[in-house]
Amino acid sequence: MNVARDPSGLDPRQRAVAIGVFDGVHLGHQAVLQATVDTGHVATAITFDPHPRLVLGYGVELLATLERRLELFQEAGIEEALVLEFTHDLQQQEPEEFAQGVLRRIGADVVVAGEDFRFGHRRRGDLTFLEEHGFSIVRVAPVDGASSTRVRELVHEGEVRAAAKILGRPPEVDGIVVVGDERGGTLGFPTANLNVEPHLLVPAFGIYAGAAFDGPAAISIGTNPHYGGLERRIEAHLLDFEGDLYGQRLVVELWQKLRDERAFSSEAELIEQIARDVDETRRAQRPV
User: Fold this and answer.
1) 82 - beta bridge partners?
2) Which of 52, 71, 159, 281 is the most buried (most CB within 10 A)?
3) What is the pLDDT of residue 181?
4) CATH 3.40.50.620 is the classification of domain 2-140
5) 198: closest CA among 182, 171, 170, 174?
6) How deeply is 71 buried, as exposed, middle or buried, from its count of CB atoms within 10 A (0-12, 13-18, 19+)?
7) Helix%, strand%, coil% for the chain, nearest 5
8) For residue 150, pLDDT beyond 60
9) Domain 172-283 - what CATH class?
10) Where are the domains of the chain?
11) Angle, nearest 10°, between helix axes 148-156 and 160-167?
């Protein structure tokens, strides 16, 4: 998939364009992307980075990194993407300016969005505005219950299976493997320690069954209370993987929460519990 950071990076072509942040690329977003592909034009997504709420000072926990968003666009059949830097200047841009300076410039013919889509200064632009300015419009009905806010609530509660029903795939943690305490290896369960972007949503503390690299993974999210830890750690034990992952990006799927984290009476008891967690992980089923 071709990715541009400025409208000049995309040749003017007869395009169908989906516009939005698409945080999480949940089922509602997927419906918009699929409708874009179905037009038969060059399927294009326009998205924004950073998230507008971060720029406006409201704060938000992201369901996916930009890199992961773009991967999901490609999986949905999007051919080209335009990533616009969201700034206060862009927020103040009049709808007419966006329509001419971005949409017309890349050759957009069709705009695909949900009925509540708004853009431009004071959110004055909408689908009717674009229709009046000569664009063909595809209105996509909302998918019942599909909400990034609801996904965040569920993931915060550790309800990853319920969140997966809205996302159309398991929730994920996406990060770079860094050196940790290396305690897992001494216990017989080596882990990959993930460093995630500061605004990325991390699920409720606990032990999860999931997957990475298409193989099972037992994931610990928390502070390692058995060892008196204070800092949050995200550690994935890849059951059938051997190799050096340091410095590599790792995307871990979370299939179900197995238990809360806790301290144990002895290290032997901890090892026995981890072994049970691994057995449960092998039996776990991907939620979607």
Assistant:
1) 4, 46
2) 281
3) 64
4) yes
5) 174
6) middle
7) 35, 30, 40
8) yes
9) mainly beta
10) 2-140, 172-283
11) 160
